[in-house]
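Lab notebook, design round three. We kept the backbone fixed and only want residue identities now. Task for the bench partner: fill in a sequence for the structure below.
Input structure tokens:
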């Protein structure tokens, strides 16, 4: 059953069309991948689904449970169960880790925080009272954010480039969390240009220049992506100084 639907979604930014007539369905409780090269429109689509400022003026429609999200603000989308895991997680400077994880948690208890920290590979005795700040590494921040999202028990998780700027162990913890999300019935949409990330999905969409070129099994999409997309330098490929901007 489709929990999230894209109906002819089109979006222009700075006079340039970034999303071009996207149509897709994301099934409840499944792990999907949106894969494509840098500049394909993946992160822009995630921002539009989340309803972030500057990304709500799209054409077409985005439906949650068959109902349009047009005009629904980002905080209300979050209350309805949509969560975006950033490439660079917010640090919330100075906030204690237990309070950060408990902020949106369905179960607000120290025991739950400690269990979640353990699940993402962080020792509760060392981390539960630590502040979320710039002293944490990229991998630690990703794991803390992952713990907070698991605590929310969301309906949909958008994971934007989950392998960006982290170590192998942190990435493995993210992959292990996919089983937890599936057990919750959460729909996961991983936004990536990585073959390693794609392999952990159940279904994939291939994006290029704001269009969906193909969809289907991971095996089907990975073969085409490896042979045709990785060696290709397409017209929307960002310049080096633009690569940290939304794709």
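Proposed sequence:
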């Amino acid at each position: 059953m489709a929990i999230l639907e894209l109906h002819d979604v089109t979006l222009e930014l700075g006079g340039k069309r970034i999303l071009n007539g996207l149509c897709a369905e994301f099934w409840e409780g499944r792990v999907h991948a949106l894969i494509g090269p840098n500049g394909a429109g993946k992160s822009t689509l995630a921002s539009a689904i989340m309803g972030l400022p500057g990304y709500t003026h799209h054409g077409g429609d985005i439906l949650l449970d068959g109902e349009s999200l047009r005009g629904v603000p980002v905080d209300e989308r979050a209350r309805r169960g949509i969560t975006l895991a950033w490439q660079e997680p917010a640090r919330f400077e100075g906030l204690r880790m237990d309070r950060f994880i408990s902020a949106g948690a369905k179960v607000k208890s120290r025991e739950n925080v400690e269990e979640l920290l353990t699940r993402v590979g962080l020792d509760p005795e060392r981390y539960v009272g630590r502040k979320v700040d710039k002293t944490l590494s990229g991998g630690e921040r990703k794991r803390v954010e992952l713990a907070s999202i698991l605590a929310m028990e969301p309906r949909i998780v958008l994971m934007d480039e989950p392998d960006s700027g982290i170590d192998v162990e942190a990435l493995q913890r993210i992959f292990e969390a996919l089983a937890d999300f599936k057990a919750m019935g959460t729909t996961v949409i991983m936004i990536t240009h990585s073959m390693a990330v794609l392999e952990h999905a159940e279904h994939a969409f291939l994006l290029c220049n704001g269009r969906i070129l193909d969809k289907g099994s991971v095996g089907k999409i990975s073969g085409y992506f490896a042979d045709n997309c990785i060696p290709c330098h397409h017209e929307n490929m960002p310049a080096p100084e633009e690569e940290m901007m939304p794709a």
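Keep this in mind before ordering anything: The two ends are 28 Å apart (CA to CA).
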